[in-house]
Amino acid sequence: MAAPSLHSNYPGGFANGVTIRGVPLLSSYPGKVFWVDSVNGANGNRGTFDRPLATIDKAFDTGFCLANRGDVVVCKAGHVETVTAAAGLDLDVAGVAIVGLGAGSNRPTINFTTVVGADMDIDAANITLYNFLLTGGIDALTGPVDVNAADFTMLNCEYRDVTGQATDVVVADANADRLWIENYFHNGAAAAGGAAAIALIGMDNPVIRNFKIVGNFSVSAIDCRTTAVVDLDISNGYIWTKNAADLCIKDTIPASTGKIGPDLEFMLTDNAANITEAVTGATFHLFDPVYVCNLVNEKGLLINWTASTDA
Length: 311
Description:
Elements: E1 19-20, E2 23-24, E3 33-36, H1 56-59, E4 72-75, E5 80-83, E6 89-91, E7 97-100, E8 109-112, E9 120-122, E10 128-130, E11 133-136, E12 145-147, E13 153-155, E14 158-161, E15 168-172, E16 180-187, E17 196-200, E18 207-215, E19 222-224, E20 232-241, E21 249-251, E22 258-260, E23 264-267, E24 279-280, E25 284-286, E26 290-293, E27 301-302
Parallel strand pairs: 3-4, 4-7, 5-8, 6-9, 7-10, 8-11, 9-12, 10-13, 11-14, 12-15, 13-16, 14-16, 15-17, 16-18, 17-19, 18-20, 19-21, 20-22, 20-23, 21-24, 22-25, 23-26
Antiparallel strand pairs: 1-2, 26-27
């Protein structure tokens, strides 16, 4: 799948051939398109460009999106969706793409607030979330992106801590096979309080690539927990953990499998003998280059993993 670099000047709209896993959104499409705009929309509207709905949640109600028809929900620039409860936004219709227009802070925003369990549930397969800003509006959120279904794709999205620090942000369970996260920026708070940016629990074949994760993670920036993850693939990314634990990728089982690297860069907090410990997991497959830096104004060191030998 062709995807823009994190550092490219990417408009976030339909221009320049936007695709979702290779499918161009400007081509003839079998599904329907529903428009959403919290500024000028109303949930009594039909969801057209001129009469948009007010919420994404409404587009998933009966009478709008249908399962596996290939529907697209397009949120206009400046749209804000406020989630105030567990499953406050329930993405429960399979095969729908939710696409945000705009760039930077003008992208559609999903704000999680009021209770620590406020979240967006991905409860149906083949959902795509594209070009959204996700914000933490309350301290200690426990997993605002709650992935409970297969083939969820999150592209060109950013999470920002606004009030306090989220404990975990993306939490994907054993039903989330083939989870795909790409061009993700996790903009976490520097203060203590976070555990992980992405928590993976027992799914098969998740892919995380082209990412930047910054925050204070007491467990690990990316954490495989509770049940072993099978065939994980993490590459082309940067992690800066501001917690003295200095853990960037961790398998807490430990029995998770998959590929770590290449093209990873890690920044640690303690200037100690902690280079190898930036990645922990006895059954991963490891591929350089992976560089680790543990002090400002120093050059990253190639991680000192045990090299394979030709016996």
